[in-house]
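Allow me, if you will, to draw on your knowledge of protein folds for a short while. I have a record of one protein: its chain in single-letter code and its fold written as C-alpha cells. Could you please explain, in whatever detail you think fit, how the C-alpha cells follow from the sequence? The record follows directly beneath this note:
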Amino acid sequence: MHVHNLDQWKHRHDFALDTREGERRTRLVVGLTATMMVVEIAAGYSFGSMALLADGWHMGTHVAALAISLFAYRYARRHVDNPAFSFGTGKVGALGGFASAVALAVVALLMGMESVQRLLAPERIDFDQAIAVAVVGLLVNVASAWLLQGGDSHHHEEHGAGAGHHHHHDHNLRAAYLHVLADALTSLLAILALLTGKYFGWIWMDACMGLVGAALITRWGYGLLKDTSGVLLDGAPGGDRLRQMREVVEADADNRVVDLHVWRLGPTGFGAIVSLVTHQPREPQYYKALLSRFAELRHVTVEVNRCGGEPGCH
C-alpha cells in the first residue's frame, strides 16, 4: 500500500472554535478596563468611597483575568497543529475560563473582607465626585459587556436522527464577559450606595453593597467553575446520550457493548471509545456509521471482539 493512499483514513485533531473575533474583542476590553481601573482606584482613595474603591480593585483583578483569556487565545492559536497535544488545543479556552473563575472567587472574598471592615469603621465620603466616577465606570463596563456579549455561544444545527441543536461555548470569552458583567454590577451597586448615602445619610449602604456584590460574583464564578471543570475533567455528555449510543450499537445484529467511554475534546465535540463483542463482526467503520447520528461525536475509536459462543458472551 502506498503512503498517499492512507490519507482517506487520516483526519485533523483540532477541536477548537474559531476564536479570532473573541480575541479581538477581549483585547479592546482589556484596554478599557485597565484605564477605568486606574481612575476608580485613585478616585476611591481620594473621595473615601469603599464601594468605588472596591470596584476599582475589582477591575484590577479582572484586568489580570482578562489577560489570562488573551494568553489562552494566543496559546491555542499558536499550538493548534502541535503534535504534542493529542486532541489539539480545544481545552485551552476552558482552562483560561477555569482560571478566571478562581480569580472571581478571590475577588469576591477580598471585596467581602474589605466591606466588613468598612461596615465596622465607616469613613467620610465625597459623594458628588465619587458618584460621577462610578457613573463613568458603569458606562465603560456596559460598553465592554456589549463588545463581548453574544460571542460565547456558537449555534450549530445538525441533521439526522438523534441530532438536535448544539451550542458550542467559548468558555474563555464567557469568562471575560462574566468579569465585565461583574464590574458593571459593582459599579451599579456603588452608585446606589453613594446616592442613598448622599440623600438619606445611609453611610452603611456603601459597605453593604460591597457585600451584595461579593455574593453575586461568587455565584457567577461558581457557575463558570462547574462548566469549565466538566470540560477539563473529561465530562461525559448529559442526559440519556450514553444510553442512546449504547442502544444504537446493540440494536444491530447481536452486538453487545462491553465498554463505552465518551469525553469532551473541547468546546466543539466529544471523543468516544467503544468496545463491543458480537458473533457477526464487521469492519470498525460500520459501527462508526451506526453512531454517525450523534453529531457531537467527532473522534470515534471502535474495538470489535468476536464472540465464539463462549458462556457469558451475551
